[in-house]
Amino acid sequence: MALSFFVFLTFALFSLSLVARTTTTTVGVTFSSATSATHTKPLSPEQIASTVKSLGFGSVRLEVSDPAMVRAFLYSNTTLLLTIPNHQVPVIAANRSNAVRWLYVNVVPFFPRAKITTISVGNDLLESTPSFSSFLIPAIRNIHLALRDLGIRKISVSTTFSFINAVTTSFPPSSAVFQEPALEIVIRPLLQFLRDTNSSFLVNIYPYNLYRLHGEIPIGYALFQEHPFNFRDDLTTGVRYRNLFDMMVDAVVSAMAVAGHENIPVVVTETGWPSSSADPTEVEANAAYAEMYIKGLVKHLKSGIGTPLRKEGVSEAYVYELFDKEVKTGATPHGRSWGILYPNMTNKYEIEFSGSYRNYQGRNSLELIVGLFLVFALFHGFLVFPLL
Ligand SMILES: *[C@@H]1O[C@H](CO)[C@@H](O)[C@H](O)[C@H]1NC(C)=O
Ligand SMILES: *[C@@H]1O[C@H](CO)[C@@H](O)[C@H](O)[C@H]1NC(C)=O
Ligand SMILES: *[C@@H]1O[C@H](CO)[C@@H](O)[C@H](O)[C@H]1NC(C)=O
Ligand SMILES: *[C@@H]1O[C@H](CO)[C@@H](O)[C@H](O)[C@H]1NC(C)=O
């Protein structure tokens, strides 16, 4: 009897440490090439690359792929996520040789010296150009097959959704499903493709936008502030949410599960908080809140505790965005500034993005607490299995 307890205890702690060891989230940043177009003194790709590295980001997402930018990351350990612009999707869907041509410009000259990991075919295409949605899956397949033709197997292919346009609800997360008709046209075949190719589901997640749509959400809940009343319980799954970000991630996880795919990794391609807005009614778009959000986000991702439904959390998350687009051009919708840097490259916030994204100390003490609890529970004959 005692022996089986110990075997069980060992097994329990072993599984826990397995989970712990695989929990890492890469924190990256999005760079929009629109930024260079709107800046009075455009920065060189080399300046941008060294800024990304010096800030300590492990990964960079190019909102529009640009060969000069990819070149600037040659021989660096920064991984790259490239995006094919929406308007090129029908062309690439039409003919695989167009896909090969795109890869010859954007990937072949640089890979593997530049660590390109992912190509997103389009960004929020369903919303911005819905008439192209039937081209999305053929374009993704063509890029995938073209990579295989070129003998490249380490780059995964996907597309990027925006949360608000893809998922029906964020609360409770367990009741979320994908919106029709996107589910049947795009998402269902995409999920099958992602599973077959070991690729990730890419989604832009903005608690800021959801907060603005639902005034009843407490601001601290959107900003990762810990407070005794900052929680919501999902009564179906019986889990407690302490921030809006986790709730939105788990809504995506639930929607995938309902569509029959529980284990596809999630990458948050964009998330952030604006430090200002041209619209004076957006009082929450301020630097203090933006710093709280990004700090809270990075701390949460580094803690390695994941979300209630995804213990390993999201595999990557990209802060939106590196630089403010210059507001005077009116290029940004609603004139919001999302950058973590001013156009003159000075930091807006004091945030540590670098280092190991794993809180060893936190995890060790968590393991210790859970371990002690298990010992305690075993001695008292509690049923501990549901804990795992
Ligand atoms: C990249 O990572 C490898 C292995 O961790 C390390 O040896 C190398 O120095 C790094 N290169 C750069 C440019 O940081
Ligand atoms: C694809 O493009 C190539 C070269 O442009 C052309 O030779 C081929 O006929 C095209 N295939 C289709 C199915 O349109
Ligand atoms: C996906 O990953 C599994 C396990 O790591 C591996 O066996 C399989 O070959 C991979 N499939 C593809 C298409 O890369
Ligand atoms: C950079 O721009 C910001 C905002 O316009 C300003 O507050 C700051 O002083 C500038 N820094 C330098 C070094 O010019």
From TrEMBL:
The chain crosses the membrane at residues 368-387. This is glucan endo-1,3-beta-D-glucosidase. Residues 1-24 form the signal peptide. Keywords: Glycosidase, Hydrolase, Membrane, Signal, Transmembrane, Transmembrane helix. It comes from Ziziphus jujuba. Its EC number is 3.2.1.39. GO terms for biological process: carbohydrate metabolic process. PANTHER family: GLUCAN ENDO-1,3-BETA-GLUCOSIDASE BG1-RELATED-RELATED. GO terms for molecular function: glucan endo-1,3-beta-D-glucosidase activity. Belongs to the glycosyl hydrolase 17 family. The gene is LOC107413759. Gene3D superfamilies: Glycosidases.
